[in-house]
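Onboarding guide, step 5: your first structure request.
Type a short instruction followed by the sequence, for example:

Predict the 3D structure of this protein.
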Amino acid sequence: MNGANADARSVAVVGMACRLPGAGDIDEFWRLLCDRADATGESPPDRYDTGSLTSPHADQGSPNSAQADAGSPGGRRAGYVDGLADFDAEFFGMSSSEAAELDPQQRLLLMTAWDALEEAGLRPDRLAGTRTGVFVGATRADFVERAFRHGPQAMTAVQYLNFRSVIPAQVSYAFDFRGPSMLIDTACASSLYAVHSAVQSLRVRESSLALAAGVNLVLRPDEGIMMSHAGTLSGDGRSRFGDAKADGHAPSDGVGVVVLKRLADAVRDGDRVHAVIAGSAVGTDGRTTDQLLNPSLTGQLDVLRWAYEDADLDPALVDYVEAHGTGSPLLDPLELQALGEVLGAGRPADRPLLVGSAKSNIGHAEAAGGMAGLIKTVLCLRNGQVPASLHVEEPTPYVDWDRLPVRIPVALQNLPASDRPAVAGVSSQGVSALNAHVVLRQADPAP
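The system replies with C-alpha cells like these:
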C-alpha cells in the first residue's frame, strides 16, 4: 500500500477527554502518569457498604485469605472516580428527578463526551443531525441491578433507560447524532473494540465523525467476592504488571472518550490531530485452548499480525506498546511473549520494545481499560515520552528477557529518536476470549 492509500484509510484522533482515578481530564492524567502516582485507594464511604460483606475465605484459613481480604469488598482498595453525583441536568435537557434516576455511567459519559468535543474544538450544536457515530464499550449494569434487589417498588418505568443498550443511545439523543449508535460488550476488550468499530465505520463512510468511548463504574461491592474466588484480584490492591510478585489487579472506575475523524477530513478542516490510528484488528481465540476461559498465545499472535497488516506497518518499527497488562502472573508473561515474538522480529538489539501498563497507576477499569490505555498512548506520542510502569521491583521469571527484546520502563523516558513518526500499539483482552489491538503513529507537525 502506498502512502496516499494509507492516509486514505487513516483516522485522526482530534479530541479526548477522561474521568479516571486521580485525574479529571487528560492533562491531569498525564501528570499522574509522569509523577509515578498510584491513584488507587479505599472506597469512598458513600459508594457502598462494604462492611456488610465478608471475604469468601475469612473462616477457611486459606493461604489465599490475604488476597481475598484485600481484593474482596472488605479490602476496599480500588481505583475510584470522584463526583458521581455531579451533573447539570438542565444543561442536558433533563429534570433533576430524571437525572437522579439515571445510571451514573450515563451521566458521566454525557459530560465526558461534551468535554471531548470541546477539546476537539467542535461545537455540538453544529453536529446536530449529522452522521456522527457513537460506539461505547461497557459491561456493567450495576445501577439497575441494585434497583432489582430493592424489590418491585424500585422497578419503575424509568429503569428502561438504565439498560446497557441505551448507554450510547443516550449520547446520540442528547446531541442529536444520526449515525450508528451501538454498545459493545466483549468484557475487558470492549472499549478498544469500540475504537476498532468506529474506525471501520469511518473508513466505509457510514459515519462522518465518530465518538468511541469506554465507561465502567464499580457500584456493586459483592462482585469482588466472585473475583476473589477466581483469584484475579491483587492481594494489596495494586497491579504489578510484569513483576515477579504480580498476583492480580485492582478494579477501577473509568470513563474515556475519543473523537475520531478521517485523517484527510481533519487535515482539510484544519483540526488539531493528537495522533493517527493507522490500523486495528480484533479476533477471538476460537478453540486454540483446552477451555474457553484459558488465554491463548495463538489468538494474541494472530491479532497482532492482523493489526500491523491492516496498518501496513512493519511491527519492528513499533516504539511502545500499552499492554493489557493487568498484573496477572499467568496473563502478563503470555502477553509479553506474544509482543516479543511479533514485534521483536527484526528489531535492532539496541532498540528494545517498551511495554507498559496504566493499570499500575489507576487499576483495571475493565470495559474502559482499553480506552484509558489508548488515551495514555496518544499522550505518549504527543509528548514524545513514555512514563514508568509502577510496582516493578523484579521482572517476572516467566519471561525469557534475554531472548525477547521487550523492556518495561521503570522511569520516565523519551521515545527513541528517529527520522520517522513514532509508532505505538495498544492491546486489550477480554474474558470473552476476544483480543484487540490498535496501531497509532505520531501526527505530522502542524504547518
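Each response can be followed by summary notes, for example: The two ends are 25 Å apart (CA to CA).
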